[in-house]
Design a protein that fits this description.
The protein contains four helices and no strands. By secondary structure, the chain is mostly helical.
């Protein structure tokens, strides 16, 4: 059986990996993937807290987070495709120099 402490540790580790990916990576696609990892870490934390308190609130929040992540993927992929068509790169530093 998986303990609550190991679920909390897994969630915190997953969130830290996502934050590290957002701060270090310069590719827009990897930044979006890191944000997805952070959302999944929060979802795991909600489900773990839900199992500790014996209620279904965390599982309902998981469904809301899953819906948010799916909509973020749809909008983010559209933005990534449009940015790649315009600049032929996904490097965030080069995209930020296109402000004018």
């Amino acid at each position: 059986m998986i303990t609550e402490g190991s679920l909390f540790f897994f969630s915190i580790a997953l969130f830290c990996i996502g934050v590290f990916g957002v701060l270090v990576r310069r590719n827009l696609l990897f930044i979006l993937i890191s944000i997805e990892i952070m959302l999944n870490a929060v979802a795991v934390l909600f489900v773990a807290a839900s199992s500790i308190h014996n209620n279904s609130d965390g599982q309902i929040m998981y469904l809301l987070i899953l819906t948010l992540a799916a909509s973020e993927v749809a909008v983010g992929l559209g933005l990534v495709i449009q940015m790649y068509r315009r600049s032929k790169t996904l490097d965030v530093d080069q995209l930020s120099s296109m402000k004018g």
